[in-house]
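To: structure desk
From: M.T.
Subject: fold request, one chain
Message: Could you run this one when you get a chance? Sequence is below, nothing fancy, just the single chain.
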Amino acid sequence: MGHLFELRDRLLRVVLAVVLMLLPLLYFANDIYTIVAGPLLENLPEGSNMIAIEVASPFLTPFKLSMVSAIFLSMPFILYQFWAFMAPGLYQHERRMVVPLIVSSTLLFYAGILFAYFVVFPLIFAFLTGIAPEGVAVMTDISKYLDFVLKLVFAFGIAFEVPIATIILVWTGMTTPDKLADKRPYIIVGAFVIGMLLTPPDIISQTLLALPMWVLFEIGIFFARRFVKPKTDDDDTEENTIHEDATPAVATTAATAAATTAASEAENSDSDIIATADEWDGEEEEEDEFVDMTDEEMEAELDRIEEEDEDDEEPEQEESSEEPQEDNNDQASDESSDETDKDNKDKT
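Reply: Done. Structure tokens follow.
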């Protein structure tokens, strides 16, 4: 239950940090929206402006942008809280690896946002507003524009995490840099597919997302070959050793308890063996003891033996006497059967 309470505390800290970041941003909500809408406003035709087609859009749209900005600006603190929650379950060498990954992933995410704002947005909006049919006034709704911008910003921010994903795959032993290099054609095709899914339906934004992803993939392979050692079985053995060393008190206590138990069992077994040996010695001593009989006891024992012999002879005599009687009876029965046979013949 302790880790659940810690998770709750971490989440509360994250919410508190976002709220504290949001409060000052709300005061500058309209100014922030004007900055974000700058790439579109610069490319709108003369006399065109952005519009709000919903009643609450002038308030809700800048408020939504301020909230998203607060989350983006609080991202380092959010990632730190995530790392602090996971740190107790990591080994020492994993902690050394996680901190650079968190810092670099945060910087790459912000780099993706800046790339989208300064490079992608001007090209996309110049293209989209320039191909408008004649007689069509380009007046974008502020709510629709914000949704469009946030989608692109999030897509480019995630796309710039490709080097981190590549390094993690090699670090965990799931693959190697050589295997990733062999799959380069599939990676390029996948980058364009992801660009198609995450960007508006135009070739410019799709290409501007796919090309950086490919370049960042190559950068990830480069750093994986130079600075990351693939995870092997030896590393697993080392991790187990480190884990054993990290808990010496538990191991010592367990060893002491096992030794105490073994000693007590040995003492009990020794005492049982000694008691059994004493019993055997006592029985042998009782069997070895011999008491001389007196003359009267000797005569009485002889008389008892003679009486037993006489009792055994009487049943034998009775059996021998019964055997002739049985023979006579058999002979009589045979004679009677012969006479009966003769009478039957005479009658016939």
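Reply (cont.): Residues 258-283 form one domain. Let me know if you need anything else for the meeting.
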